[in-house]
Design a protein that fits this description.
The chain is an alpha+beta fold. The chain folds into 3 domains: 68 residues, Arc Repressor Mutant, subunit A (Orthogonal Bundle); 51 residues, no CATH class; 101 residues, SH3 type barrels (Roll), CATH 2.30.30. 39% of the residues lie in helices and 21% in strands. The strands form 2 sheets. The chain has a 5-stranded antiparallel sheet, covered by helices on one side. Helix 2 crosses helix 3. The longest helix has 16 residues. The chain is globular, with a radius of gyration of 18 Å.
């Protein structure tokens, strides 16, 4: 076990998400370093890498050498709007969980065809559009919040949010939603958090409640999306990206 420690209370799907966040910097990461950072064994990291590959994540590498992503892991630049991508994602995910074997098989086939045309993913088409990584219930828990979040990003609405972090710590925050990101079944939201006075990345499925305050915000130096992306680039260059809380 890395450093004699053992990660407790964290689901495998959450750990896989953390690995993807860490590896977004495009650098080479050894299984030993990842195990130390996530407090699991190297054998666990090897299994996680196999799962990510099977799910279509563009990861290359091997034991004893290290792992790195071979293409940017971002929202696919298809000719789809955010709403269209969300609708497609939901439909394929639902059908993939269907008890009807023909429908489920067709959903898997459709997912493979979608993977095949995503320009960021240079790896061979996977057999499931993220099916192997996140249970459908994870994403479904956050779907109800997407309309308000999309509107808040477009209209710069100030939102009050009740949030349950991955360590099950609950908090109420006033946020400025800046961007929604898709990770294969799981959506995240980058925002400026008034409570922390800093940028934060939130898992949409961990949001318990949202309230439109009726107020809006204006872009401010140090608090807008461009500043957030610049800060992420700097963090990636130095120590890896910030993980969703």
């Amino acid at each position: 076990m890395a450093g004699g420690r053992k990660q407790t209370g964290i689901r495998r799907s959450d750990r896989l998400f953390d690995i993807i966040q860490i590896m977004r910097d495009g650098a080479l990461h050894t299984a030993h370093d990842l195990a130390e950072r996530l407090e699991v064994s190297e054998r666990t990291i090897w299994r996680d890498m196999a799962t990510l590959r099977a799910s279509g994540v563009p990861v290359e590498g091997e034991r004893g050498v290290g792992y790195m992503v071979t293409a940017p892991i971002t929202l696919p630049p298809m000719n789809l709007t955010m709403g269209e991508l969300e609708a497609l994602h939901l439909a394929v995910a639902i059908l993939g969980e269907a008890t009807d074997p023909d429908l489920s098989k067709s959903a898997q086939s459709l997912a493979a065809k979608i993977d095949a045309v995503l320009p960021e993913n240079a790896s061979p088409p996977s057999t499931g559009w993220g099916f192997a990584v996140y249970p459908f219930a994870d994403a479904a828990a956050g779907f109800k919040h997407m309309p308000l979040l999309r509107d808040a990003v477009r209209e710069k609405k100030l939102i009050r949010m009740s949030y349950l972090a991955l360590d099950n710590t609950a908090s109420t925050r006033l946020i400025r939603p800046l961007q929604l990101e898709y990770w294969g079944r799981v959506w995240t939201m980058s925002a400026w958090c008034e409570l922390r006075n800093d940028f934060q990345v939130f898992r949409v499925d961990r949001i318990e409640a949202l309230i439109d305050t009726g107020a809006t915000f204006k872009d401010e130096a140090g608090k807008n999306l461009q500043d957030h992306l610049a800060k992420m680039d700097a963090e990636m260059s130095s120590q890896g990206p910030k993980t969703a809380i």
